[in-house]
Design goal:
The structure is a homotetramer. By secondary structure, chain A is α/β, with parallel strands linked by helices. Chain A has helices at residues 13-28, 45-55, 64-69, 85-94, 109-122, 136-147, 178-181, 185-188, 190-201, 324-340, 349-368, and strands at residues 3-9, 34-41, 59-61, 75-78, 98-101, 126-128, 153-161, 205-213, 218-220, 228-230, 236-243, 248-254, 263-270, 273-278, 284-289, 299-303, 372-373. At the A-B interface, β7, β8, β11 and β12 of A face β7, β8, β11 and β12 of B. Chains A, B, C, D: Residues 4-130 form the Gfo/Idh/MocA-like oxidoreductase N-terminal domain.
């Protein structure tokens, strides 16, 4: 069986999630090639060696530049901090490697565009890790929309709110600085809901009207000196949306949404029905159909099961529940099928560029106080 | 005991709700005066007589103009269609009567202003029936906000979505025409959430950015001819909000939100906690406090009980549940206490004018594509 | 219009609920007779007079024995403590009055039987206030069962748990003593779920296997002396059930179910569907139908609306929510229609006797450790 | 690093779940030894070879008897149908292998006892796959109980209901026959809730009173002949429980609970609080504490997060959600730590025997109509 050697850069929360998924995916799915946890890069040799042992990689290096050029590596998997995505991806592309990168693709649309053009010029394949779209319930939502079951879409409401920066005593970190994060909540979690808005509706967001706010403008310096430094990007953002198919909608995103831990949620309203989803209950979808006797109409709670996308590969019985890491396992399946097969990769760099364009448009709209085209 | 003779105009859904509440309120509460169902007006004498019997009014008339001048009547209670509010209220005010009117106060802010000025000139007392703010759970939400329990407010999200016009075969009616309704969903149900946004946060909405859409632009004529006529106002609307205290937020409203029956809901986020409420589960409030051990933090479901505003007058035991009409009973208590006592009436005509100003601002913003001050 | 003069005995929580409902019912419903709040009895003249003013009764007396014989009174409405039901009802029956009594009918089945026989001998009409069965959602559940929509019934699960005695520092009171309460949680709240089990399923409970427990066997004396006294009845109880139609099931009841405020709930499973209800969300019913595509099956949340039993009399629009007192308003409608019309009264004394028989059977089964027939 | 060679027998739904977990566990956790997917047995060589490829095992055999004796195999992992557990486990034990078996351990308590005694005699280690107890939320529930946070336990309510046999057209299969399944729903899914009742409460079930029912007594023969055959065990069962610590409770289990897909749920009530859990929402726990101001008490929804047992190994951020297979990953961690370390394995064969004893006691109680000791 063909193998696909993976070179992983970065072993934080996301790097570990990738490693788990790489190990499990070939058993969950019948893959056309075997992904191999081959080479791992971290900031120094020692950490790299330890992480390789922990995460089950064959080889380790303290130099990511060596990794991207390593002849054995087929796919460079970038889980390093966001501000490094561009340099790493460009180096990998230059070395002719396929690239699998975490989201957001880049800090700005300009950077993302450069990455897209490089990848397309070199003919390498790319995939960006917007993993929530793989969830069985969200794939089901898309299927329901596409089938016309809820009629023509008339409204999209989305949010991705978390509260990881609610505490004002939490010091400045890479999230809060322009140079390392680009946009704030809008880029970090908002990117998910912007991508998902297009994925779910099958329509493009054509124009946005945005509003951003830095709720806690100064935070303690991370050096423990007791001094304060400036937060350079948004803590919360919201936008009205126009889609190219006529649909309207709105999104909301925050990193100071006190109480929300995994606050990705959407409501899609059509002329004949509606869908409600909340990632905090990721294995269920609420579906309403405007049909049948009036006294029997209500939102049904559908638990994901073998009839729904990709679920049967995880369990033969309904309602057994998928978890966060299962989304990544599906993503690995898509990666492998996209690279060794003919299946288009979604979202590739070009698609991920759209997310950066939308983020930029929301920021520009906020500055200008006017609708801005994407 | 002092009595307060009520003259009710209009006996549809809302008129009946008023009548039920007038009958029950004196038993639920210890009122400073006894409201009396005295005179009822309908479109003709016969209907008026029948409705007076059904709703328990002592006298009936087919002429509302007689009602507003009737010397026995202390308070004119206007439950007629919205487009009649102005003429009726002005006539009642001219006759020196206190006025209790259903929402929205008027079709436009200009009309509302005329009504406010007339009432203030004549020194009559006024109350407008934004009944959802009386609900025990919503009063509790306000109490929690005011007490500082959830810290400084940073985000308000509200919606009032229903689906009473989802069916495209539903003919044109008074809701859909400018002359009889003014704004569409925005005026009819959106007015509730706009008023509530200010009531709950204790802040004024200073600027709005709005977007409106008529989803079903043409509907069957009500004459059954099979012809189609134009819908003249919005089926759905949304707006970003700036409050004068620095808070930001957004609202959404619709009459074609397929599946939503009583879709009034809000999320209020503060620096130390958050509140979530949904009118479809009107007797519970979700409360999150960012305190205590991390592993024990979550939204608590508070069932309304005797510790919460006005509940104890309905039941001595927690969780017994209030209903829609109970909100009106509380409103009647406020009416009576405001008219015979010193308590300020909220929302009076001047406060209700704000709702019209906000509606106008949203419409203007939509037309201009820019933030508009209220 | 015919009038029906009500003589109310007892003005605690339940007495007030009756008064509210008596005032509102004629406006909510088109009744065949007008119930009149005529005479009110309390423990002394002064309290009676004050309560009559507060609750809107025309006359007052400190002597309930005068009330039951008063020639103007048509219906004696007993809201006094449970241990007084028997004496009062027998006196009222002897005076030829119809009797409307709160539940449980009596402290023992023997007492209840005496009351039934007296009422039937004298030919007076009777109604017992098991109000939760009037709730629109529960009436809908019954309608669904009767229509066969969920097939043949195979399982009934019910509970009525509250936590009003959770605090061990709460002193002994009438609930805890055999002479004043009979059974404990089983009689006080369990009586509701036992009655409802038969109401909903349309089957009779033929045999029970019960288990009772006094969780807090000694509580402070109510005299504040600091001494402890014995709790004489159950704090929690549970039973397995056999119905005469072949159905099996179980019930649970408690007054120390920490956290549960209005914990009346049931799940009815049939061969083709199922129903779930929770009184804490009294205006919604969950319905599952085992039909249609497998991937679209789930429990639907039905909000009560005008298509459902009795709702339209309260509101013309769906999802507006009924409250606890609305159940009592429906009960008053049934009382009036039963007394002046031909409609059978349910549950009358004979039906309420069944509840006492079931309670006795559960207690006997507990003592004997064996199935006991009802 | 030490390795632990796994010999897997059976590759249905559960066999695949084991394989996925074996692959992922070493990356999720820092294990003291590396479990190796070494040898796989299926009913014939060809299927075994194909399944070994699919599930990632190094070697394959069509003869499970060869597997249990294979010198390279350290642990025999039994995922074959229940009626084969005994023979396979005894053979594995005789060969000196550690045994990891799916639940229920055996068809009868007598068989289970034979297995326990063999394992203890040979000194091999054992583990039985009651995977739901590994779920982070359920481990948290146990932690809360043990810490005394909800006081002394006073009631346990559990159920495990599913509807996989609801359709009467579903033919007889191994589940329905005594010789292949032993008990019906009670053994298949009821075994989970019986084990969990003891795991969660820390008390032993000392006596049960049970009731069983075969709802669909005859089903189509699996040969397609159109003939009907007898269902030999229970479709649904329920029992009242007495625990050795004084706690009482009840359980319910079904395979014909129309509408329930993963209906494992429990409510644990203590003197100071309560816990509610539903496996259909497996990543959340409802917690009530009877403390603080009365108006702020309610059930809190705790989303599992890094503060809760085992969660941090899967994700660094709260609310990301675990899935069914993650439970098995935790089970593998426990298996490896139990076999190569000092940690006691729970539930081992002796503990699993208790489940068989409880099942037997429920069946006996049903037959005798009396309480039966476990």
């Amino acid at each position: 069986m063909q193998t696909l050697n993976i070179g992983l850069i970065g072993t934080g929360f996301m790097g570990k999630a990738h490693a788990i998924a790489l190990k499990a995916a070939p058993t969950v799915f019948n893959l056309p090639a075997m992904p191999v946890c081959d080479l791992l890069a971290e900031v120094d040799d020692e950490l790299a060696a330890r992480k390789a042992r922990e995460l089950g990689f064959a080889r380790a290096t303290g130099d990511w530049k060596a990794l991207v050029k390593d002849p054995e590596v087929d796919v460079v998997d970038i889980c390093a901090p966001n501000f490094l995505h561009k340099e790493m991806a460009l180096a990998a592309i230059a070395a002719g490697k396929h690239v699998y990168a975490e989201k957001p693709l880049a800090l700005t649309a300009a950077d993302a565009l450069e990455m897209v053009e490089a990848a397309e010029r070199e003919g390498v394949k790319t995939l960006v890790g917007f993993n929530y779209i793989r969830n069985s319930a969200t794939q089901l939502a898309r299927e329901i929309v596409q089938s016309g079951e809820i009629g023509e879409l008339i409204h999209f409401r989305g949010r991705h709110n978390e509260d990881y920066m609610t505490d004002p005593a939490k010091p400045l970190d890479w999230h809060t600085q322009r140079a390392t994060a680009g946009a704030g909540a809008l880029g970090d979690v908002g990117s998910h809901i912007l991508n998902m808005a297009e994925y779910l509706t099958g329509q493009r967001i054509s124009e946005v009207f945005g509003q951003l706010q830095t709720v806690i403008p100064r935070r303690p310096l991370p050096d423990g000196s007791g001094g304060l430094g400036e937060v350079e990007n948004d803590d919360q953002a919201q936008a009205l949306l126009r889609f190219d198919g006529g649909l309207i909608g709105n999104i909301e995103t925050s990193r100071v949404a006190t109480g929300r831990k995994m606050g990705l949620a959407y409501t899609i309203t059509g002329t004949k029905g509606a869908i409600i989803f909340d990632q905090e209950r990721m294995s269920e979808l609420q579906l309403y159909k405007h049909e049948g006797p009036e006294g029997r109409r209500g939102f049904s709670t559908l638990l994901v099961g073998p009839e729904h996308p990709d679920y049967a590969s995880f369990s033969a019985a309904p309602g057994h529940g998928l978890g966060y890491n299962d989304q990544k396992i599906i993503e690995i399946r898509d990666l492998v099928e996209g690279i060794v097969g003919d299946k288009p990769l979604y979202p590739d760099f070009r698609e991920a560029l759209r997310v950066n364009l939308m983020i930029d448009a929301v920021e520009r709209s906020h500055a200008e106080g006017a609708w801005v085209g994407v």
